[in-house]
């Protein structure tokens, strides 16, 4: 199946450089592999059940999304215990430390990943609460 994507030029250039350095046969092969890794990461995130503790780290372009992120954080104050924030020019790095149902923390992760001005969102579940 053929498809098309809108990708910023700098991301495409970096992606092409990466798959070429790895010696893959084509961009299509690299995209299929990246998609498979994305699916596996999603499945691992979905497997976490019950009460848990997590750290969610994300970076974002401050001026484009700060008000929306504050709204999200207030929406999820039932699981967010504390935050750590660092400025780096126009970009910020933030970590929110969460305790609560894994399902609710996943909802937070998915909502953060849906913002264009958020670069990356990584979650680490620290321990399931017994």
From TrEMBL:
Residue ranges the record marks as coiled coil: none
Residue intervals of the Ribbon-helix-helix protein CopG domain: 1-41
Keyword hit for DNA-binding: yes
UniProt entry tagged with the keyword Ion transport: no
Transcription factor NikR nickel binding C-terminal domain boundaries: 55-124
Keywords linked to the UniProt accession: DNA-binding, Transcription, Transcription regulation
Protein name in the entry: CopG family ribbon-helix-helix protein
Protein species of origin: Halovenus rubra
